């Protein structure tokens, strides 16, 4: 029997609050329990609560005499959902309260019905005053965790407002047209024939932004590989690496294979090795490549341990799209606002350095490595590159478009090493690129 959207949303959010996996993983696991018609509402509630979590959490804590214990995080999720419906959905006030109270019963926590009713009704009565009292808190003013506000302000004072605005908005849907099958212009007309309006990406030659998001099965010839969903910033990787026929290329952290597929669309006659640590994510590369009708050598392994998977034949080029804080794509993964912690950045910097040093050994002399992250943290980006260039005497930085002179670099801000891309409201995600050559 299918479950209600609100019940499953509370269960998904409970797992996210308990740090038992990402929002997308939890949605993937549980959304099947909801009728198809209700899945949109489930996603709206889950993404919405995560997107507004810093604000909703501050409001909730100000309304409760003591925070919920972990064993009742399902109720806490229900309360956050109630507040989200009051503030950000068109749910009538009385319905938001009624549904939240009913949810306590569905969660077998009848004892909490009075509390839920009282807290939400008080918020409805005193909303303006409560918000005014909280307005100075960074989590409420910027709808971001305090530590992130501090770091963004410190690192990017001039772009701070843009980062906050773009991070808090719903991201546009961006697709990459497979130009080995169809031109961007033709595909745009195919979309228009079914009343899907799109505009061309400014910096990627193959991208289109859709005026409003559609499920992938509504994209013409999606199953035949005419098109993939990929942000504009991410589309630049394959262009900047400019694969040439006959080259041996390593895609060092490859899943779900968005860039793997793009490299092969651009140049099918390459020997591409894609390495990925997580076995279940490797299967996603497999299905993506199958859909595009291309193939690569897929290896489940640790990129920082080439002894596990490298056959000692040096690569001409390496794409290292490193695991990172994903602070440039919070709008697509809003649970980062809940679960990412400042210490994570230090851990990630270490992992990135280990993968950089190890994969560098597999690059031939004269070969190129494109280092990429979807992070806005200089520690993971320009500072990571500075430290790397210091450690590796045979590495030097090249102009980012050395391999693709026609590619404009106007999409980003040149920093001490590489180019930092900031997210924009209607456009690209936050990203970072740096091109290195081995001597
Ligand atoms: C930023 S994502 C890559 C996105 C991918 N390049 C794309 O365009 O679809 C980073 C990936 O690196 C993987 N990863 C993390 N640590 C790794 C390691 N030590 N070796 C190989 N892959 C790793 C993660 O599981 C994740 O799939």
Task: Note down, in words, how this protein is organized.
There is one protein chain. The protein has three domains: 5-137, Orthogonal Bundle (N-utilizing Substance Protein B Homolog, Chain A); 173-229, 2-Layer Sandwich (Alpha-Beta Plaits), CATH 3.30.70.1170; 232-438, Rossmann fold. Helices cover 45% and strands 15% of the residues. The chain has helices at residues 5-17, 23-30, 36-51, 53-63, 73-88, 93-106, 113-134, 138-141, 146-155, 160-168, 184-193, 232-241, 258-266, 279-292, 336-339, 342-360, 382-391, and strands at residues 173-177, 198-200, 207-210, 227-229, 248-251, 271-276, 297-300, 315-321, 363-373, 395-398, 413-414, 419-421, 431-438. Strands 5, 6, 7, 8, 9, 10, 11, 12 and 13 form a nine-stranded mixed sheet that branches. Strand 5 (248-251), helix 13 (258-266) and strand 6 (271-276) form a beta-alpha-beta unit. The longest helix is centred in the first third of the chain and has 22 residues, at 113-134. S-adenosylmethionine binds at residues 234, 253-259, 275-278, 281, 302-304, 321, 323, 355.
In short:
By secondary structure, the chain is α/β, with parallel strands linked by helices.
Total number of beta strands: 13
Query: What compounds are bound to the protein?
Result: S-adenosylmethionine
Which superfamily, in CATH terms, is the homologous superfamily of the largest domain?
Answer: Vaccinia Virus protein VP39
Secondary structure category = alpha/beta
- The CATH topology of the largest domain corresponds to Rossmann fold
The radius of gyration is 23 Å
Uncertain regions: pLDDT < 50 for 5+ in a row?
Answer: none
Q: What is the succession of H and E elements? A: HHHHHHHHHHEHEEEHEHEHEEHHEHEEEE
What fraction of the residues are assigned to beta strands by DSSP? 5-15%
Report the top-level CATH class of the largest domain: Alpha Beta
Largest sheet: 9 strands, mixed
Count structural domains: 3
CATH-derived architecture of the largest domain: 3-Layer(aba) Sandwich
End-to-end Cα distance, whole Å, is 63 Å
Helical proportion, percent range: 40-55%
Mean pLDDT: 97
Domain SAM-dependent MTase RsmB/NOP-type: 163-439
Subcellular location: Cytoplasm
Active site: 374 (nucleophile)
Binding site for S-adenosyl-L-methionine: 253-259, 276, 302, 321
């Amino acid at each position: 029997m299918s479950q209600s959207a609100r019940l499953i949303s509370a269960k998904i959010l409970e797992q996210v609050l308990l740090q038992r996996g990402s929002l997308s993983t939890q949605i993937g696991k549980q959304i099947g329990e909801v009728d198809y018609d209700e899945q949109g509402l489930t996603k709206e509630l889950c993404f919405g609560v995560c997107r507004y979590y810093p604000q909703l959490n501050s409001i909730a804590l100000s309304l409760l005499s003591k925070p919920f214990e972990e064993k009742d995080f399902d109720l806490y999720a229900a309360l956050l959902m109630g507040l989200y419906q009051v503030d950000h959905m068109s749910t009538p006030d009385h319905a938001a309260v009624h549904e939240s109270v009913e949810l306590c019963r569905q969660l077998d926590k009848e004892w909490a019905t009075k509390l839920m009713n009282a807290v939400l009704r008080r918020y409805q009565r005193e909303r303006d005053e409560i918000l005014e009292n909280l307005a100075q808190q960074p989590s409420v003013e910027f709808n971001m965790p305090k530590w992130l506000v501090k770091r963004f302000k410190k690192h990017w004072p001039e772009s701070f407002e843009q980062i906050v605005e773009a991070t808090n908005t719903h991201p546009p849907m961006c697709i990459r047209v497979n130009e080995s099958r169809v031109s961007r212009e033709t595909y745009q007309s195919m979309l228009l024939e079914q009343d899907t309006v799109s505009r061309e990406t400014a910096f990627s030659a193959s991208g289109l932004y859709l005026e409003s998001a559609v499920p992938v099965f509504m994209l013409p010839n999606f199953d035949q590989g005419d098109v993939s969903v990929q942000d504009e910033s991410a589309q630049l990787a394959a262009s900047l690496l400019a694969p040439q026929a006959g080259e041996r290329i390593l895609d060092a952290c490859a899943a779900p294979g968005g860039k793997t597929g793009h490299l092969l669309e651009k140049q099918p006659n390459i020997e591409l090795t894609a390495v990925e640590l997580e076995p279940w994510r490797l299967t996603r590369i497999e299905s993506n490549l199958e859909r595009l009708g291309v193939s690569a050598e897929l290896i489940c392994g640790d990129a920082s341990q080439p002894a596990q998977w490298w056959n000692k034949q040096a690569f001409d080029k390496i794409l290292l799209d490193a695991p990172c804080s994903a602070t440039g794509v919070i709008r697509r993964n809003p649970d980062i606002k809940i679960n990412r912690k400042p210490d994570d950045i230090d851990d990630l910097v270490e992992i990135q350095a280990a993968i950089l040093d190890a994969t560098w050994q597999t690059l031939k002399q004269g070969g190129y490595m494109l280092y990429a992250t979807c992070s806005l943290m200089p520690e993971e980006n320009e500072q990571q590159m500075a430290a790397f260039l210091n450690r590796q005497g045979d590495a030097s930085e090249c102009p980012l478009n050395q391999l693709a002179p026609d590619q404009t670099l106007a999409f980003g801000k040149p920093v001490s090493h590489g180019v930092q891309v900031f997210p924009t409201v209607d456009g690209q995600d936050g990203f970072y690129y740096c091109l290195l050559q081995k001597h």
